[in-house]
Design a protein that fits this description.
Strand content: over 45%
Order of helices and strands: EHEEEHEEHE
Low-confidence stretches: none
Largest sheet: 6 strands, antiparallel, barrel
Number of domains: 1
Radius of gyration: 20 Å
Number of strands: 7
CATH topology: Pnp Oxidase, Chain A
Helix content: 10-25%
């Protein structure tokens, strides 16, 4: 049988390290979000797997014409996108002493036509993965949100 604490006031939260406390958190407008996304190169693609649970993949990406484009190898990720195209894409980084995070929620589709693939610029996207990436995916946003904060030192 589990032990019970007789005085709930004695249970205190752990102290928070001062470096983790931000001086302010700013919501970013959509233009700022796109600027930050365009300056980064690695993000995370969240999909709904065949088991109806979320899965997440690190992806090299590029931004073009208000869309995010990724390259992928064949596999479960592409099958999941074909079955359920609703995705989230997140990237983060440092800029001017701030930490930032941008989340794009939208719809993914595999690009099949050569003219779309060439126009997107995704053929020039270099992958950090050593495996072949010959499938191209466009993520069209429904919402784009972001936050920025300056950590205390």
């Amino acid at each position: 049988m589990g032990r019970r604490h007789s005085d709930p006031a004695r249970i205190l939260p752990a102290p928070v390290h001062a470096a983790l406390i931000a001086t302010a958190v700013d919501e970013l407008d959509e233009a700022e979000c796109w600027t930050l996304l365009a300056g980064a190169h690695v993000g995370r693609l969240a999909v709904i797997g065949s088991d109806e649970r979320p899965d997440i993949f690190p992806m090299d990406y590029l931004v073009s014409a208000g869309r995010v484009f990724v390259r992928s190898g064949p596999g479960q990720k592409l099958k999941d996108l074909a079955r359920n195209p609703h995705v989230a894409f997140q990237a983060d980084g440092d800029a001017d002493g701030f930490r930032w995070s941008v989340v794009l929620r939208g719809t993914a589709r595999r690009l099949d036509r050569d003219d779309e693939i060439e126009a997107s610029g995704v053929l020039d996207l270099q992958s950090t993965s050593p495996t072949g990436k010959y499938d191209y995916v466009e993520i069209a946003p429904v919402t784009v949100t972001g936050r920025r904060f300056r950590p205390q030192r």
